[in-house]
Design a protein that fits this description.
By secondary structure, the chain is an alpha+beta fold. 51% of the residues lie in helices and 24% in strands. It contains 16 helices and 25 strands. The strands form five sheets. Strands 1, 2, 3, 4, 5, 6 and 7 form a seven-stranded antiparallel beta sheet that branches. A six-stranded antiparallel beta sheet has the order 12-11-10-15-14-13, sandwiched between helices. A five-stranded antiparallel beta sheet has the order 17-16-20-19-18, sandwiched between helices. It is flat, with a radius of gyration of 46 Å.
């Protein structure tokens, strides 16, 4: 009876603790979830607002570009219309008087009619010049009969603008030009930028024109645009501010200033400049419209380079807090409701557990003890649980299920072991730490590299590095891996016995707590494939690259030389009187001679960018990028002597007692080469000339 009571109390205590623990965990995770949600709400809200203010700044920026373009086009249109009006006036005077008045009288009437017409605060006026430079109406003054020629008159930039005006009139009939000229209403003798439009007046070989001073136009454009920007409002506190790069404020606190004023907050201005360079947002404290209190604010600025304007706007972060407070209230109410529900459920469960546990505690305890003991034994020895010791069907079913689970586990362990053995034997894998030190290697990796696991583990991957692979290849690989990306590619490696092999590899970073702690590589043996590729581009007799490879690489090298603005050198050579050599010594000796010449050629082409080919028969080629022409010719003459120094007897040669070669060399700035066929033809022509001139010599085509 006592055991039953103890069991009942224990079950009740366990139930109470379990329910309480569940309740506490539930509330805890809800609170953590709420904190996480608040964090994301704040981040998302700020990012959304950042996007809005950036969009607003870019919209204003594009509107400035658009309005400036529209106003500039309108100014050009006005200039064109004004000149057309002046031309019409002049032509009407001419047509009305050409049969009743002299030319001098008509000219006087035209000049008198146009000289008093002005625009834009009397700074824009008409001018007339004869197309040989004689001044007719100059700077609002009549120059008739004064014989003043301004043909060589130049502005402060050295532009002979009278000549340019005449050229436009005579060749195009009419058109625009930019120049510099003094303002007639100012006495500062300063020349200001000016946009002018001229049109041919053919009766007197004149050109009539007018213009606008660009600085006046720009000021009017800027005033119009600043007024528009100052009126922009969006959201509760949204407005645009504009500063100048010389630390002057143009629109401050949403108001266009009558005159630019000094920006007194040097620190904030420098922050704007720095953020503008980076294209990033910046945070500071600033007062809202119509208030004196400062609030945290995030802003974005962009420079309009043409005018040196800094355009920006921002958002006040306190708007986020009100959004978060509302969400906090909602979550708090939700948690309170859940607490009430959980308390009621806990009481009900506690009462239910009390009655059930009191009735079943003895038998359950006995079955649990038997089940636990049997399960421990079965787990350790992988044997079935003895169900004869259990009195409840439920526990017997549980034991049968555990027996089935044990059986499945044992099968899974065996299957996993077999699977891992298959991978270990057949997949070339390895793992390394962050420094590239091998921490694990499969048997397949050991088989292909001929190193044992003991030799590999603890060593750097440099143990299989092939000396032919350039250092830059591995630098680019590590750059990709250190950025957290997967690297894929083909690598040539070196086995322990000195033989090379090729693999197609995938290398992936290993992460722990969001940090890279190592790398895992899976490889596929492609050695046979690379051998086939090698044979397809290699001449079988000499070991040099064949004509097929030449056709591919010359295109790539031409493009590379054009990018680097370098010279591209192509050398073609023939063994002199090789047919006679074969006829005299036999084809076997001929093959040996070809091999020796190829060997000499290969020994000279040692740089990474040097390519040597057997183009066919006794014809060979060399291709490389060079910085100048002298080195190429030196290379060719050196090879000429190397071949003769081989001392391969050729008694039927007409130029030497030994085998010699004739060489055609072309070195050309790559950007002037149309295509690879042009380069090949030039070298072929040079080779032909070398043979024609007596052989055993170099003919150079430098273009």
């Amino acid at each position: 009876m006592q055991l039953t009571n103890i069991t009942t109390r224990t079950n009740l205590l366990i139930a109470f603790i379990s329910i309480s623990f569940t309740f506490i965990i539930s509330v805890y995770f809800q609170y953590k979830s709420f904190e996480e949600e608040i964090k994301h709400v704040k981040e998302d809200f700020i990012e959304l607002k950042k996007s809005e203010i950036k969009t607003e700044v870019l919209r204003v920026y594009k509107n400035i570009e658009k309005k400036e373009k529209e106003i500039n086009n309108k100014i050009k249109e006005n200039l064109k219309k004004r000149v057309a009006l002046a031309h019409t006036i002049a032509n009407s005077i001419y047509e009305d008087n050409k049969n009743i008045k002299s030319d001098e009288e008509i000219k006087y009437l035209i000049v008198t009619a146009l000289k008093n017409i002005s625009f834009t605060n009397k700074r824009s006026y008409f001018f007339i010049n004869k197309n040989d430079g004689e001044a007719i109406l100059f700077n609002t003054k009549s120059m008739l009969n004064k014989n003043i020629n301004n043909w060589n008159l130049k502005d402060k930039k050295g532009k002979a603008f009278i000549q340019e005006q005449s050229k436009i009139a005579l060749t195009k009939k009419e058109g625009f030009l930019k120049t510099h000229f003094v303002k007639p209403d100012l006495k500062d003798n300063i020349q200001y930028p000016k946009l002018s439009y001229v049109k041919l007046f053919s009766p007197y070989n004149w050109h009539i024109g007018t213009g606008e001073y660009i600085d006046d136009v720009v000021k009017d454009i800027q005033d119009t645009i600043l007024t528009d920007i100052a009126n922009i409002r969006y959201g509760k506190e949204g407005y645009i501010f504009v500063n100048r790069i010389d630390k002057k404020a143009l629109i401050f606190n949403g108001v266009k200033l009558d005159k630019p004023k000094d920006y007194t907050n040097t620190k904030l201005f420098n922050i704007q400049l720095e953020s503008m360079k980076k294209g990033d947002f910046f945070q500071y404290n600033f007062r809202k419209l119509n208030t004196k209190k400062e609030f945290p604010k995030i802003s974005f600025v962009k420079q309009y380079h043409k005018w040196g304007w800094i355009i920006g706007t921002g958002l006040y972060i306190d708007e986020v807090n009100s959004h978060i407070e509302l969400r906090q209230k909602e979550v708090k109410n939700s948690i309170i409701l859940q607490i009430i529900s959980l308390v009621l459920v806990s009481i009900s469960l506690f009462i239910l557990v009390y009655f059930i546990s009191k009735n079943m505690s003895d038998k359950i305890k006995k079955n649990i003890i038997n089940l636990i003991g049997s399960f421990k034994t079965a787990s350790k020895k992988s044997k079935k649980i003895n169900t004869s010791l259990l009195t409840y069907d439920e526990f017997e079913d549980l034991a049968n299920s555990l027996n089935q689970t044990l059986k499945s586990r044992n099968k899974a362990i065996l299957k996993q072991k077999n699977y891992l053995d298959i991978i270990d034997e057949n997949v070339i894998t390895s793992s390394t730490d962050k420094e590239g030190i091998i921490t694990n290697a499969s048997n397949a990796f050991c088989n292909i590299s001929k190193y044992s696991k003991k030799e590999l583990i603890g060593s750097s991957h440099n143990i299989i590095r092939h000396p032919d692979v350039p250092k830059k290849f591995y630098e680019q690989m590590w750059e990709t891996l250190n950025s957290g990306k997967v690297w894929k590619g083909e690598i040539k490696n070196l086995r322990k016995d000195g033989k090379e092999y090729w693999v197609d590899a995938i290398i992936q970073p290993i992460y722990k707590n969001k940090e890279i702690v190592g790398y895992t590589a899976i490889r596929h043996d492609i050695t046979d494939k690379k051998k086939v590729e090698y044979l397809s581009i290699t001449d079988e007799l000499t070991g040099l690259r064949n004509r097929r490879f030449f056709n591919e690489v010359i295109k790539d090298e031409l493009l590379r030389a054009k990018r680097n603005k370098s010279f591209l050198t192509f050398m073609m050579l023939d063994i002199d009187y090789f047919k006679k050599y074969n006829d005299t010594y036999g084809h076997q000796k001929g093959d040996e001679a070809l091999k020796e010449v190829a060997k000499a050629l290969k020994s000279l082409c040692k740089r990474g960018g040097d390519y040597s080919f057997r183009l066919g028969g006794e014809e060979f080629g060399v291709l490389f990028i060079s910085e100048n022409t002298q080195g190429s010719e030196t290379f060719a003459n050196k090879f000429l002597k190397e071949v003769e120094a081989l001392n391969i007897e050729h008694k039927e040669s007409l130029v030497s007692k030994n085998i010699t070669v004739s060489i055609g060399l072309v070195t050309k700035q790559a950007n002037t080469v149309k295509n690879e066929d042009e380069l090949y033809k030039l070298a072929d022509d040079a080779l032909y000339e070398a043979k024609k001139n007596g052989r055993n010599q170099v003919v150079v085509k430098v273009v």
